[in-house]
What does this fold into?
Amino acid sequence: ISTHRGHGHLLAKGGDPNRLMAELFGKVDGFGGGRRGTQHMADYAIGHLGSNGITGGGIPIGTGAALSQKMQRTGRIVVVFFGDGATNQGVFHESLNLAALWKLPVVYVCENNLYGMSTHIRDAMAVRHVADRAAAYAMPAARVDGMDVQAVFSAVRPAADRARAGEGPTLVECETYRFLGHSKSDQRVYRSKEEESEWRVRDPIPRLAGELRAAELLTTAQIEAVKAEAVTAVEASVEFARQSPFPAINSLTEGVFTEPADR
It folds into this structure.
């Protein structure tokens, strides 16, 4: 279950970048036939149950999905992503309480980027860390450097193992940062350029690349090849989306819960 900006989650799960871009273009070859748009991507075939346009809206959905897995005894677990702002929504607390009470196989991953739009987390939350909130539900928690790929893996792996073993949920807080504004019109006057620069040097992509190079697991040429492959994939997806047709006008009422009454 993803956030309302879940393109990265979908791609990481194995989603087709061509279909993702086609959806952004509102074309029929998109994940929602051009109807879901940027905030409602989903691909059930690969286990991606969707992103959500409501802050925290995916948390109760993911909790319900975890209940379903437990009742069906599938052995599968659910991972729910959300931001720090979502932890101030009532559904966050209700969901974590039920998940702990029923020992549901779910891992809650908070991407804490410090700001809910323009409000710093210190001005929106009484406790210091999101992970502190897990104690209210007798739930284990981990707080990690979200800019460190290995640190995130090391925190999520035991949480996933715990969920699979029937021991219940875990809350993982990944401390990260949003480099750009909340939207195109966001001038970021609520934070300093110095703060942004300090976080920029911790960018997890070049950081991981440097670690792999230092460990002699990848060469500089191999790293550059991966970057080039990514650029090519994006360019190809844009061209695919441009070539995909728009939905037909007469299909406007398809896939909705109600249709206009006959006149």
